[in-house]
Amino acid sequence: TSPTTSPTLTPTLSPTTAPTNDPTKQPSSTSESSARPTDPPQPTDAPTDEPSFCFSPRSMVDVKDKGPTNILDIKVNDYVRSGTNSFSKVFAFGQRNHAQPSRMTVIETTSETSPVITLTFDHMIFLEGVTLPVTAGSVKVGDKLASVNEDEAIVVMVTHNVADQGFVTPITTSGKIVVDGIVASSYAGKNGHSQYFPNTGNIFHYHTISHLATSPVRFSCKWVSESFCGDHFHHDHENAATSGQHVFFTVIHSAKHFVRSHKCGPVLHAVLFAAIIGMGLLFEHFFTLALFAIVFWYIRLMLTKNFAPGSYAARSKEKIL
């Protein structure tokens, strides 16, 4: 059975698993039992081309005060749906291109309101009941996607390496965005994996790390000036990997590619990784850290003042001695 995608899409790989006999109906109990809401699926070996974290330009999102909107038409400072009852502000774009060829993973579900979501192999998507997302490339038939609609979105077919044209990645302040009714991450994993280091649980999850890494630009746009997220900080050339990309993400991606190259040894890798995470934690918890610093400074000042020569505390100490 061929995937029920747009006629312009041409699958170049067969589905990773066989679909149900009738994709419009929910799978049998066997398929339902294969869903793993608390056990993220294992990555597959299906390939993907750059860009690695994007949605199809035909995807739809729900913009506050505007309603359903094509994902290419949203702008910085728009508030898009990020959950059933929540909206998040778009502060930057990871990439945005109207015409460059791309390769997508098409996920079809039993949901009548969210029948298909199309995104790149490594882009992450949420499963129902799971706190952190998994890559689109690791989604299997029978998995239940996190949907904001009432009907369940149980996966009936996954097709990789589908030819498409254009791509877009809105980055939100929450790190989440609802695309075609399905809750997705603003970020991507790598080679089908959602963890930076294998078998480390949620500590080194790509979603968590990526959201921390973006905290400097989120902080700057919110507390310094919104101009840091304006058009002049986004690349405007169409035919490049950095098309529509915020310059901050260009720097981060350059650092990422350097870390993964043979030029970067394990020590430098660890130093750069720690620097990015440390910088992220600093900006993510800036005001909390500032408050602790002020309290520490005040306590130290009071102790110094109280035990200064001639103070009551100093005289009391001399009497005791």
Automatic annotation (TrEMBL):
Superkingdom, natural source: Eukaryota
Stretch list, region Disordered: 1-61
Entry keywords, A to Z: Membrane, Transmembrane, Transmembrane helix
Record's compositionally biased regions (Low complexity): 1-20
Transmembrane helix listed as a keyword: yes
Pfam families the UniProt entry points to: Hint
UniProt biased composition (Polar residues): 21-36
Segments passing through the bilayer: 270-299
GO biological processes: protein autoprocessing
Span of domain Hedgehog protein Hint: 52-191
PANTHER family: HEDGEHOG, PROTEIN HEDGEHOG
Protein name per its UniProtKB record: Hedgehog protein Hint domain-containing protein
Organism (species): Entomoneis paludosa
